[in-house]
Design goal:
Blueprint (H helix, E strand, L loop, with lengths): L8 E7 L6 E5 L2 H12 L7 E4 L8 H4 L6 E6 L9 H5 L8 H12 L5 H17 L22 H24 L5 H20 L24 E2 L14 E2 L5 H7 L3 E4 L3 H12 L10 H9 L4 E4 L32
Amino acid sequence: MFGHFGKSRPFKIRSLQDNSKYGVAASDVKELLKKGCNILKLPLSGAHVCLYEDGTKVTKEFFTTLPDNTELVLLCKDQTWGGAVYDIAQLLSSDQHTAGLVQVAKGLLTGEKSPKRRKILSDFLRNLEDRSELESRDEDEDWFTGVEARFKTKSAYLKYNCESRIRSYMKELDDATKSAQNAKVRVECLHASKSISRMLKSDKYNGCYFDRTEKETHRLCTREGWFTCQGSFDQTNCASLHSINPYGSRESRIVFSTWNLDHRIEKKRTIIPALLEALQNHTSEDINLTYFYRLLFTRDNLKLVHVVCHKKGAHNLLCDPKKIFKRQQRGKKIHLK
């Protein structure tokens, strides 16, 4: 039924985080949003609604053309929905669904008439199939366009890419320790920097995070190479479910370079200054360098985030004063700014 003005009609509505669908009757978008937010316990301010099928935003005019029982997704401010294939993306965190995902995508593509959705599904399916098959330069020459000839596999290049990012953090630490004015303090800073560098080398610069051939506990991606955004520093996960497979295509590899390994407790504003301050009146042997190493270079403090989820403002998180030193000196309090 189309074109009904002022008459309440039935719709099926759900939220981004919950797959459960609820029936709601409404005569216009305003009423739909009000009732929907009440049912789904979502804030009304900034709320908007779109088609479950392809993510098209439902406007006041578009609402009147919708048939009864149309499936809709109610979104909070800044949330987005990419269509039915968005649901499939939620399965990407588990390797065991790979074969099933391919079949589901093929099923959705069969008989699909919308050019927009056909392209989305085709690209999604191509990435699903490519990710589990192609690895070497001989197999996928296009992927390696612009990549140095010494890299023979995708995994080797992505591992190097991760190592390069983390090596840059070490350079920042080295540069900061060399800036100490007091000669004695500068010596202790250099000792600390060298000790942390040895830890990093021992862990092979944690390049395993981007290497899909590594053990599951060591990598940030699935066996096929899918990465999922872990959300901004102050969130437990990504509300928009951003995901990418840089192993799937050259374009995805390039776009992946915009994703960030973000420090929850900030590197420049907090971690390095706290280390240098602690070394002002203590030797490097007194400092819990393992704690600083883990904050700077490991997943204890790093989150992989989509560029949209990378908040560049101050994080306002501090180092734990109880972990900065190997042992607190009895009867003496240590004050850090």
